[in-house]
Amino acid sequence: MARIPLKPRRSARSSGLSSLFLALLLAVAAWYLLHPSGRVLEGRAHAIDGDTIRIGDERLRLKGIDAPEMRQMCSRSGRSYLCGETARDALVGMIVNEELRCRSSGRDRYKRLLVYCTAGGTDLNRRMVQEGWAVAYDREYRDEEAAARRRGAGIWAGEFQRPQEWRRENAPRQ
């Protein structure tokens, strides 16, 4: 009589460990896809607004700063102007004909990569705040914001509403 080889049985414990390992591996992979910290993007950029750029198909948000919105009005010497457009134009001037190097540190709620960018060795996030075309979004650029305010640089030369407040007051009503 021919003998039928038996398959070795896997214990419930080893099967459970394999499943746990696979689940853990998938969770780590998903986390890295959703939180691409440390990813580096390089290339020519297009400014969308004063704190958002595009390199290739990827939208990038300059981390730690908040520039006026495109439709936002500010005033200087009693005259109103579109300070969001002016902030974007300032960023365009900083990146035109430059190869940018941007390091990501996650994504925002709009799925944009949060990045720190340099152009020709200059920190763009910092420079936007130093020149007064963006405010510090958190503590990282507070000293630069205070210096721009003292000098009356950019939006600090007149009156403006902080971009976060402007968005809150001008959000579409639902």
TrEMBL record:
SMART domains: SNc. One of its GO terms (molecular function) is endonuclease activity. PROSITE patterns: TNASE_3. It comes from the Bacteria. Residues 46-158 form the TNase-like domain. InterPro entries: SNase_OB-fold_sf, Staphylococal_nuclease_OB-fold. Keywords: Endonuclease, Hydrolase, Nuclease. It holds the Pfam family SNase. SUPFAM superfamilies: Staphylococcal nuclease. PANTHER family: BLR1266 PROTEIN, EBNA2 BINDING PROTEIN P100. This is Endonuclease YncB(Thermonuclease family).
